[in-house]
Amino acid sequence: MFNNLLLFSSLLSLVGLYKFTTAFFLAKKSMPHISTCEPDSARNLLYDVLELGKENIDKIESLGILSKHHLILGDKKVGHENSRKAEDDIQAQGCWMPRRVDAVALIVVDALRFDFALEHLPKSIGKRLLLEQERISRRQDSVKNDEMWSNDKRRDESWIEVDDVPPLGQSQLYQFVADPPTVTMQRLKGLTTGGLPTFADISGSFGGATVDEDSWVQQLHDVPSSRRGIFSAVGSKGTGNEELKEDNETDGRQSLVKMAFVGDDTWVDLFPTQFDDSHPFPSFNTRDLDTVDDGCLLHLPRLLDSFGRSARGPRKQNDEKDTSPYFEMLVTHFLGVDHVGHTYGPHNVHMDAKLNQIDDALETIFNKIDQANEVCQVVFVFGDHGMTEDGNHGGGTSEEINAALFAHYSPGCGDMGPSLDITGSEVGEHSEDAFRSINQIDLVPTISFLLGLPIPYANLGGVVPALLPPLYHKFNHTEKQLVEAPFVATALALNAAQVWNYLATYSVTANKLPEENMSELKAILDQGTLAFKNALLQQGGYDSIAFREACGQYKYFLSRAIALGKQVWTRFDTSGMLMGILIMLVALVLQIPWLTVTVKTENSIVATKQSRKSISVVTAKQNGQDSKVLGRKSMLETLVLVMILFFHCFLLTFSNSYIISEQNIVMFMLSIVCLIPIIFSLLWDIENDYPFSTASLLLTIMISSRANELFIKGHGLDPMIRKHWAHNCPVFLTSLCILAVMRLLYFSRKRMQNGIVHVVMDTTAIISLCISWYEKRSPEVSRHGYLSSRFSLSICFIGFCKCLLDEYRLANLRRSSKTDSETDMMHRFNILLIKVLIFTITVTGPSSASSSILFICQCWAIYYLIARNKNVTKIRAPTLAMIWRLCIRHAFFATGHACSFNRLQFSAAFVAFETFRFGPAGLSLFLNTFGWDILGICYLSNVCKANRRQDILSWFCFFQLLETTISCISVSILRRHLMVWAIFAPRFVFSAIFLFLCNSYHSFHIMPFPKRPSVQDHLHKN
Fold this sequence. Notes:
- By secondary structure, this protein is α/β, with parallel strands linked by helices.
- It is 57% helix and 6% strand.
- It has 35 helices and 11 strands.
- 49% of the residues are buried.
């Protein structure tokens, strides 16, 4: 009856966990809408969303700030207000605003931290930053001279009249703030759509998730180049309002204007058909430092030769058409810096060499940009995320979210001073902070305005005025006083209108956003619109405070919109979460009757044993004293367990500081739980048998855990890394030899059927592993150790299958023979676990050879603690369950893991294969992360079954269910917490996986399978 109740409870808890997980990780709803490049799209956005009057919009159009669309009919240009018969023949300076640049190059240096760009790229970024400082100094001197000659000289004109400006283009360096999760695929989604990918999207980082929302990549692919101002000369300085050329093709996606890509194949996973010239390279192997970067360097010279309109050379005589294609967008994604960080960390000779290689490549690109004197070209160099001091990323620490953004402009872009001069200081400090901070998604509307595209519909980023080359001095307006402020104000107004339109639509169609936050945003938006209207109504004086106030208000609105998205972006199904928690609580309560029975059984056994010893009066008195000692011991153990459960399951799951320091806390708790029985064993050894056995076994567990934590480092890292002593050949070879000797000793003491075969297989796997790690230490590239690793893993897999087959064959014999005891079954199962242990060691790295020896010592200790405590007068079942639970949890932390995705040891996927293979790589990474937990759970179950102590396993599963249930409650309560996706949600995920592993095996273990009749049963029946 109780077994059925436990089985039902275990399965019910998994159902509740599934219900809660699906309700908590509901991803944001993707909107199918796209921003259009129709002639009236910008007007409609300003009119419908911002409620600007017709006279305001006409004023903007008259100043040339909004793009003018024309319909080409033969040799005539007709305004867009007339009839439109051929939609593809519409030409414009840009979709919403005039195009600002001729071409854009995006150079992604994966994991480029801000300090890397500032201090370690001297020939490319460092050189141009020094020139920029010199330029600023000369500009300031020029402003002072202008003020001496004329106090009323306009500020913006002083920017232009700087003599002797160096011929190189201008440059800017910023901190580029990423949003967690700091994983490449999520960051690229944000950098192309302007959205905030949620935590639930992290599964897409392992391949195959295309972008299904509006993005500037898709806009470049779909919007005809004639509408994007490709052939209008906007961007060359001093050209004026030139006639729109008619030499472009009008077949939708023009063959003369292309997009090119080279580098990390994640871009092709996201955009499989959008790039015209695509050269992806595999990115999963973190130990491959050069393949992607070498591929980029191989194709870059050819792509740069065709980059931008300047690559077509001068126009031919008699206006003859130039039909040579060129790239208006070039995307290059270097990956070596990220892989060096994962493999060696951020501070070593490998990182220096890789950054020097990137420095040379960037210098070549910048020199190409500096040659564009007549057209405006820009290159953005940035990191998609940063990296921690151990080379990882994925979370939300400052090291992971603070990347670098370096912008370099060609001389044809003119002076960037007027754009840099708009800082939002007229509104207040909050607006200035919005201008200073650049989020990665802010690059999306900036790229859209640079290339004359509409902003993607689901964008939440705010355009960065400092990155926009000025437009006002490139048009021959009748208004000679026109400056850059109206252009920036209009760009921010369109950006704000697009963001508000998206938020309002999302709130109505997908998930209602908080009314209080939406009202606050609307108030800020209305303030900016009011300032914008007042600025447009004035006559002349276009650099008035009104335009700058509008810029400040709109930028502040955009910053608050991003904050709102970060706060409430994920849609939670609160009713589903509550239902899942209730189901898990019911499963928790259903286990209490069984646990209560086990406690009563222990007490009754103790009483029975004490009564049997009552032979004399003296003995009775002694037994009474022993009973009091046992009572005190039981009370103290219970008190310690309650405290441990309170801290570990309640306080820890509600505190981000506790979660960050969980490894130290688990080690402390393990020491406390072990010390209590040690004290009782030394002071009050009741039965006087094995006086130091309990204490020595518990000390073995404590010392092994402490040694594993303090002395063994470098788990999950390649053997060729010489940073850790455990990676040295004498250390891991000695550890593997000791492991082989322990395997032989186990066979010599527990001789079983087919035992010699398994000993040979296990020893062969260990020898192959020795060869593999030794080869990986070799400087020769050809000796990579993959073949011997595959052989070792194959031997383990074959041995595992043979163990299962042998057990199946012995099933009938076990039921018919009385000689096959549960102890024999335990030893046969241990042989199977040895295969799993060797497999786990192989995918964890050389450090795990030493860790495995300590883990085996702990397994030996817990076996004798359980076997020698059958009389339950030594250590009670809940205490033993807690000791082993903390022990294997500490093994998880001590082997370099943590409840965080940035601590996943991805190198485990490439132990046996140089290329990524989903099946073997997934299994290797899974066993690398959870192999020690699987071994601990299976071993405990095996020992408990052999010693008839199922109560210990039940308590073990109860503790894990309690922790996961409280974790569900904590993430529900803290779902709006700032660190929910960086800390609390990852820990819940790992806790849920631990529960799944524990309850799945426990359910299988107690499931009442129908018994097949034996041969003797058939004979007896006949």
